[in-house]
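dumping this here before i forget
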Amino acid sequence: MKKIVIVIVLLLTFHNVSAQLFTKERVANNIDNIDQKFLTWGYFLGFNQYDFKFNYNEDLKDILVDKTFGFHLGLVGDMRINEYMNLRLEPGVFFTTRNLRYDESYFAGTEFNDSDLLREVKSTYIHVPLLLKISTKRINNFKPFIIGGVSTALNLSSNEDNPDDNSAGEFRMKRNTYFYEIGFGIDLYLLYFKFTPSIRGVFAMNDEIVRDADPNSPWTGNVAKMQTRGIFINFTFQ
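structure:
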């Protein structure tokens, strides 16, 4: 599903760009003055797929992560620095689910059942990135760019303060996470608004797991560090 969405975005973008690059006819510029404004506003929506990166204390089998597509939406505030650089604030709400699958070797010497091998991690993030967008010169009605920056996210589903841990079926994560982000996209200047498809990777900088009370817990005892990483596919309207 992820590959299909990415291919569709790339094909639509390539069709629009190639039509303007290789046509002999001059293309009229749409909304010619939008990039000259000091402040512009908009909104975005899109799809996300979150994953976990694990570092381990001992060389046991990897904890497997079943990834699913999530949904997100939010607002855009854009401040023009010069013709090629913009500073952007993009607060949004992100919904995602990840399933962790443990190997039976983690429970050696203990009694367990099938439900102990699976932990469902549902997350709702309030995600606030501060980004620097670096663009090329506008060509007709499109302008490619790269974008990167840092962000913070509040995980409303973290259960960080829950006294129950995995022994009671509760997988806990820290409430606050800090990321760095990098991606690319293209501004398409339509008749009445600017439409921007983009793809971005996000990578957590801090450890997010809340460990169980038992230091030898099969769910958290071997985890030295657990960090979120993910892919965002955004569609922005300004």
